[in-house]
Amino acid sequence: MPYRPTERTEARRAATRERIVAAALEQVAGGGYASAGVQTVAARAGVAVGTVYRHFPSKGDLFAEAFRRASQRELDVVVQVSQADGRDARERVAAAVEAFCRRALAGPVLAYALIAEPVDPAVESARLRLRAGYRDAFARVLDDGVRDGELRPHDTRTVAAALVGALGEALVGPLSAANGNSKEALIVTLVQFCEEALPRAHERVHA
Amino acid sequence: MPYRPTERTEARRAATRERIVAAALEQVAGGGYASAGVQTVAARAGVAVGTVYRHFPSKGDLFAEAFRRASQRELDVVVQVSQADGRDARERVAAAVEAFCRRALAGPVLAYALIAEPVDPAVESARLRLRAGYRDAFARVLDDGVRDGELRPHDTRTVAAALVGALGEALVGPLSAANGNSKEALIVTLVQFCEEALPRAHERVHA
DNA sequence: CGAAGCTCTGAATCGTGGTTCACTTCTTCA
DNA sequence: TGAAGAAGTGAACCACGATTCAGAGCTTCG
């Protein structure tokens, strides 16, 4: 039994893999998915193209993982903020919306890639999971609001999805070119929009 | 001067062009953009591949035109409904939202293609114009509402975009599999959502 | 050391589907 | 009718970028 990869070697291997994922992510954050070819990423990671395929079965899998990473990072922040206790649903939604917007506006290219840019099917599924994650985070807050009597009973999943969509769409345009000033105004508008959209219990139903 | 295309001939030519666009649209409506290759569309239109290129400089241009057609049809309905006079902004928004949802749920594959499916850059711009069209239709209603004192002054463009995004996102999931029953419930939820999201003047601002 | 098994390399390969173009067919009109 | 010009044809072509693979270079351990 002349050879068995030792811990040290496996660590090196893992590090290479890590560099590749990181490079993929940097590339997407810098130039969008459209700019992210396997050759480019390999070069950025300082490895040969073949090495990428030693670590990932296909381009789709590589970027699916990269998206998953970035998604998780983004999602964690929003979930964190939305779960703060001692606050009512309206406050929690407002906090989550603000966090969502700030992060998107801080990294517009990545945000665009995660939210809206055309991608491979394999990556698309990672994106769907992200959107579902946001939706569920909002839905949890809404459910709590209903339970506590702050909100009247409603289809929380659909409303949560609508909130996510509203943010995405309203941000996509500004993601390309938003100066610092309009950013803050935009955030205020969206926070207010989402707050008001909540089906509060004390309010009359119109239809 | 032995040959000059006569009216009759030009009509035939136009008809062929029309058949190609129609075939492209049918293909997208039936199987999504992913299924829409030039060969397939040509076959469906009953012409050779080369003929497609006699009428359109590229695949992108062909589908951009097809998208424009479909978009216009969809948009016209919503604009029409949203401009009905003798109604206040809330009612007009509700009517527009309902029309939007009903049409999307009636042709889910086309709706998905128009709203969310990954497409060529050339087609993407047609899509952006569609979204902008919806946004502007809503924005006009909102502006009227502000002018009439029904709504308080706000960033109508952003709010309108948010409404469009809310509908798109909330519909994308159900577009794949929605039975008749849940459809109606979904529409009610979304109409109410959008009505409540409006920044009405008589309401307290929270933030 | 040296055999074995691993990782890395990157030029060559390959698949897909949009695009071309030499040719045929049709239309017009002297 | 026949010359000229346009529309239509579809097999061949080609660009592009993902994927492969035979060999070079490391790492481990008897």
How are the elements arranged and paired?
The structure is a homodimer.
Chain A: H1 7-31, H2 38-45, H3 49-55, H4 59-82, H5 89-106, H6 108-115, H7 121-147, H8 156-176, H9 180-197
Helix pairs in contact in A: 1-2, 1-4, 1-6, 4-5, 4-7, 5-6, 5-7, 5-8, 5-9, 6-8, 7-8, 8-9
The first copy, chain A, binds a DNA duplex (30 and 30 nucleotides) through helix 1, helix 2 and helix 3.
Task: Summarize the structure in short.
The structure is a homodimer of 207-residue chains. Chain A is built from 9 helices and no strands. By secondary structure, chain A is mainly α.
Task: Please name the defining characteristics of this protein.
homodimer; 207 residues; mainly alpha; 9 helices; elongated; DNA-binding
Notes on the protein architecture:
The structure is a homodimer of 207-residue chains. The first copy, chain A, is mainly α and 207 residues long. Chain A is built from 9 helices and no strands. The first copy, chain A, is elongated. The first copy, chain A, starts with 6 loop residues before the first helix and ends in a 10-residue tail after the last helix. The interface between A and B is large, with 39 and 39 residues. The structure holds a DNA duplex (30 and 30 nucleotides).
